[in-house]
Amino acid sequence: MEKLLPAWGLLLYLFNSLDGGRLTTNICHESNTSIALSQIISGLRQPLLCILVPSTALDEGCQNDSGFKFNEFLQRLNQIYYKSVIFSDTELFFQHIENHLQGANECISLIFDDPKELLHRLYYRRLAHRLSLFIFYWGARLPPRSDAISFREPLRAVVITCPRQNAFRIYYNQARPCSVGHLQLVNWYDGESLGLQRIPLLPTAASVYANFEGRTFLVPVFHSPPWFWVTYYNNSYEEEEIPKVFGSTQYIDLKVTGGRDHRLLKVLAKHMNFRFKYIDAPGRTQGSIRSDNAKESNDSFTGGIGMLQFRRADLFLGDVGLGLERRKAVEFSFFTLADSGAFATHAPRRLNEAFAIMRPFKPDIWPYLILTILFSGPIFYCIIAMPYIWRRRCVYPDIEHFGKQMSSTSYIKEITPRKLMLKPMMIPSAQQMPFQLFDKCIWFALRLFLKQSCQELYYGYRAKFLTIVYWISATYVLADVYSAQLTSQFARPAREAPINTLQHLQAAMIHEGYQLYVEKESSSLEMLENGTELFRQLHALMRQQQPGKNQTFFIDSVEAGIQMIASGSVSKVVLGGRETLYFNIQQYGAYKFQLSQKLYTRYSAVAVQIGCPFLDSLNNVLMHLFEGGILEKMTTAEYATQARKISMKGPQQYKDVTKIDKGSTNMKNSRSQNRDSDDISPLNLGMLQGAFIALFVGALAAGAVLLFEFIFNQLSLG
């Protein structure tokens, strides 16, 4: 029924042209062309059309070289309710297409001009996109030869020819997935048979790119476990006798021996029927914005992303993180990995056992403990001294002294008619307050808390109750808890606090001299440069590590950073993807490293060229793999394969196979170091050195006080 709709429209037009059952005028060639183009455009099923015509052809009644009248064609479009936008200025036409691409809207353009004049500008301005369709009609009888004009991907081009009167052919450059840019006949219009041969006008991209028919893709790659395991060869030797070299630009022959994304690429190639060829990525990095040329700093990338940007490669995998700046240069598929950012450093080290006797009292406990001991003596003094103060009373004296004679005040009151005004006196009680009570209370509290021998200072029931409280606190609360914690720390030695958050990392870089390293031209570096305020502070601290132009905080890969930490560098920190860090620390022993918390969410995907025509087909396959759990199984399988290789060959031997620098012997030394056991170990005198140090300091302080008292007494007696 859909194929008949254009024919019914044409019949309606012919019926309206009849006068008394006869055609009043013959349908001229121009009318047939206008009808044919309007029917061809309607076969695209798009509501809006952008038309580019020469400026001279817009005048009323004007026509192009082939005799085609534009006004008549526009009238036909209006009759079928088709919206159109007409441009005669090429620059405004390009801006209109750019606005549609920025809004991710499909734009169909009809160009009444030779494609030779516009193709170069379309590629230069990056208007060749899967969302842009360019239809060329300039009255040609045959399509242009492929050696003269190449409609290469990602440009979508349709060429309409008119081999004979009232017959049109539609050629499409993306009718086959071979990417050679050849035009192929996909549809035709015949006025004799009243309409198009098929509707829709063009084959869909999903049907064309479902099967690539053995097409070969160029894939940049570099050594980045666990995503790609790459071995580099020298051209001057046979492959069997070539040493593995990493990071040198003179070795361009490579061989991919495994990896999660290598598995994924083989699955995609099998499902979509294409082949792939690995090529060495420039600089063996993902890529970053160029800084050597100020004019290209906004849109020019290096590395594998740069190859895609300049259309020298087709796909790029290997934990390629998504980013705002990268989206301006390439496009990304459905994510292949939902990862998070993290950093790795050395495992928490053992703390010095000389200070083990002090560690049970943490900094938040020490102030309260010291205040308790200091106030215990004065409180004990107040409890003892208050009864003596309360028992003092005011009494009137009964004896009056008159020189050497004494008289009783009671007798004087009886014989004296005048009333005497006597001043009351404070008469103490019979019991006297102990001598130097305050000093004794202070020393009693100190000796009691320090578990020294001491006698009961006072026999009052209040003082006895407080003494019992002090004794219970000193014996059960402090002594027993302290002894239990000290014993547990001796049995399982204490370790320093781990660095888990960005705040801890910032404090460690400022106060402890930690150095942060990041893979060059990676998404982690972009996060440091373009992240929030805390990330920018870390980036500034990282640049302060090496002032000047020697940016030694860049590492070739995350694996190189993990190797640097494993070799004994205790103040190094490596920032990267959590999955990549986790995989690499397994190779050297997870007990040697500390992996931080999840810092931010990051996604990795397959990078393709801007406007890639097969991106939708690629997304469909990746979504099916994700929904089926195959992507997660690939990652797990790569971990299992790595564990088997390590167990079969040994950690160092396996690293010699995949690593490239044979002169590095630090790993051998680090492998020979014994692992600090986390199990309970027997107590030895070395763990008690802190107690002996405290005893020595106490004896020295006591001797100094004794000498000071001796000198003071000698001076006072002299």
Return residue spans where pLDDT drops below 50 for at least 5 consecutive residues.
1-28, 236-251, 293-297, 651-678
User: Strand count, sense and closure of the main sheet?
Assistant: 8 strands, mixed
- Portion of residues in beta strands equals 15-25%
Number of helices in the DSSP assignment: 23
The shape, in one word, is elongated
CATH architecture of the largest domain: 3-Layer(aba) Sandwich
Helical proportion, percent range: 40-55%
Number of structural domains: 4
Distance between the termini: 131 Å
Mean pLDDT: 78
As for the CATH topology of the largest domain, it is: Rossmann fold
Structure report:
This protein is an alpha/beta fold and 718 residues long. The chain has four domains: 4-203, Response regulator (Rossmann fold, 3-Layer(aba) Sandwich), CATH 3.40.50; 211-336 and 605-648, 3-Layer(aba) Sandwich (D-Maltodextrin-Binding Protein, domain 2), CATH 3.40.190.10; 339-350 and 494-603 and 650-673 and 684-698, D-Maltodextrin-Binding Protein, domain 2 (3-Layer(aba) Sandwich), CATH 3.40.190.10; 360-393 and 436-474, no CATH class. The chain is 40% helix and 17% strand. It contains 23 helices and 27 strands. Strands 4-3-5-6-7-8-9-10 form an eight-stranded mixed beta sheet, sandwiched between helices. Strands 17, 22, 23, 24, 25 and 26 form a six-stranded mixed beta sheet that branches. The longest helix is centred in the middle third of the chain and has 31 residues, at 461-491. Residues 1-28, 236-251, 293-297 and 651-678 have low confidence and may be disordered.
